[in-house]
Please model this.
Amino acid sequence: MRGLDATLQLRRSEFRLDARLSVPAGRTAALVGPNGAGKSTVVAALAGLLPLDAGHIELGGEVLDDPSVGVLVPAEARRVGVVFQDYLLFPHLTVLENVAFGPRSRGLGGAEARTRADRWIRRLELGGLEGRYPRDLSGGQAQRVALARALATEPGLLLLDEPLGALDVRTRSVVRRVLAEHLAEFEGPRLLITHDPTEAFHLADEIHVLEGGRVTQAGTADEIRLRPRTEYAAELGGTTLVRGTAREGAVDTGGHVLHIADHGIEGPVLVTLRPTSISVHRARPEGSFRNIWRTRVVRLEQHGHRVRFLTGAPLPVTVEVTAEARVELALTLETEIWVALKATEIGVQPDTSPEESKP
Amino acid sequence: MAGLALFALPLAGLLARTPWTRLPALLSGEVVGDALRVSAVSSVAAAVVSLVLGVPLAWILARVAFPGRALVRGIVTLPLVLPPVVGGAALLFALGRRGLVGAPLEAATGLVLPFSLWGVIVANTFVAMPFLVVTVEGALHAQDRRYEDAAASLGARRWTVLRRVTLPMIAPSLVSGLVLSWARAFGEFGATITFAGNLQGRTQTLPLAVFVALERDRDTAVVISLVMVLVSLLVLVALRNRWWRAP
Amino acid sequence: MRPQRPARAVVLSVVLCACGVQSAPDNLADSGAPGASITGMILVSAAASLTDAFAEVEAAFEAAHPGVDVVLNLGGSGSLRTQILEGAPVDVFASADMADTEKAARDGLVSGEPRIFAGNSLQVAVPKGNPGGVEGLEAFADPSLRLGLCAQGVPCGDLARTVLARAGVVPSLDTEEPDVRALLTKIELGELDAGITYLTDVASAGGSVWGLDIPADLNVMAAYPIAVLAHAPNPRGADAFVRFILSDEGRSILSRFGFTRS
Model:
């Protein structure tokens, strides 16, 4: 295969990484995880800055690291282009010299390297900035220079480590769109490392969720949104994940019972509740809701037009309403409310996760 | 202010004692010219040798973990603490005509370090190089090593990383290390007179000339001191403004 | 006592310059009796060539005068004089030549008349075994040898140059050391093949330096004057120390280190 296939196993003092990653050529995979999940260790292992204890890294059919057969290709000989967190552009070199650094280091002559650098500078719409130093670039420009520098080595894998992390929130969405376009320029596998779900959902074709050194779920963005397998994955998709036991169309979540549409499923299940599928009322609502219960607002956040809040006992769930609805319902902290949810709106999947990965 | 006075008062004392009317005659004297030449050559040579030998040493100390590193670091910085006369004597025992290395060296090449300009340069380098090593090692420790990772990921081998990334990025520290070691060499007295002796035009540097002149003609001593102060101020002020980063 | 090359006769020509300095009257020298109430510190600036002898003088004097602390400040005579001129709180000045003492006297720094308390002559000093095969003063013209003198302006340097001039030798030098001890050290270590030092320095080096005598008609006599200083913080102590130096006990200590009586 032309893509990346890796099983990364290594131990650094207390931390243990054991992650399987597979990214086909032309696809963008996101590796999403909270701080401390092992994301930078993955970057270091793939880039050749940290050798594996076990497992293997194979890129386009070439083995880069495999302790079992004693193969370890050093960083400078790997065809892995990295866009580093904070970009790490060389401050003493101009944009042109930064982009030409890779081709020069890989043995091209000065003129040839500059020609190639120039081509990538134009492809990434950086023309006119060739003579500037990194300190004189905007965040978005610096990111594109970092991308051009990585791509100019004509790598077999493109690694992007928090490529938007250094930008302020306002420019982030613009730069993200531009980045999405430019990622398409690269034909090999692309791996995006991030802790930001928005970034992952927008840029990636598939998502690997990394928690505590292990990949807890891998799938498309929709799969993560609709069928999260861990609380963290659910949080990524903005849903509420509840564990429980199903029996004859009812799920006991430990005190509170949810009615579901599927009467056939039995045993341990993962229940997904989407914030927009839950309706909110000041009085007990009439209608065909199979699930109605009374609760309070315990946390409230407004994001522009949308309002998200968290309910209290008996079952904490995240609910999303419009700003108008909030005014209409006079929602504030501690407001007594009724929430209602159709059985057909509840996602249910068998809980097959091993005991140890459960929190 | 009291701190400034501590530096400024001796300078004022020197100016008060300067024989202004005899100044032109004394300045154009052979002793001053010879000493200035020997000092210029030996201090610049010592700074350059410190750079060439000191940078690899600093790099090894900062980047390579090996048993006994603390001891090596201690030995390297020893000349900072040691009285220069002791350093000069130690150099005699090692590199003198009957020294551990000096005797075979003379037998093999005929080169005798004491009483030669080479000896002055060796003594100056001995006391000056620690300043460069300490400065550069500190800069290497403080450097963000991820830039070196970035360079490696772009295909740069170790030597290329050092030459094109590591060293250029610590350039300000290289320059301040160079200036500090030059300044130390320029003012060196004890190790030089002990190891290389004192002969006008060959090994007599400005500090040695001052010391010898104090015995004979105080005016000459004052004038040479003044020359030293001026040259040092000129170099330090010019370079400090251009290169030294604010702490 | 001191190793000598047997070839040369030891004849000292005493060349005292007539500079209006009187030898110490005997009655003064004899009255080295302990003063009734001498206390405190006595700072003595002494020429480097007196280092060993004065250490013993200090011990003997302090033994005779409990409660007195003699502090020796040793160095080249010229630097010592400069320190005094700049106001160093020195009580006694023991120089290796008349010139520095006379200059000090002209500047009004000396109290009373300086007195000559010891004499010294010069020797060609070579490392043990004489590796350079030095025969005498003529060797100082040999550019293939490593040769050193005291610097000009330093008494041992000026005297050595006088001797070489008399011998008609133009020296080919490798170093001019700031004081006689520094010169002696470099000879002792074998860095220099020869130098001209005081006879007392050769003696103090034990067997590690050999001395070659200089013919009497070429040699010069160094005279060591001692004086109480005008601004001595401890004038009584200073006076007692000078008396002690001039006493029989003081002189016998000095002669043990190779100084001649004057």
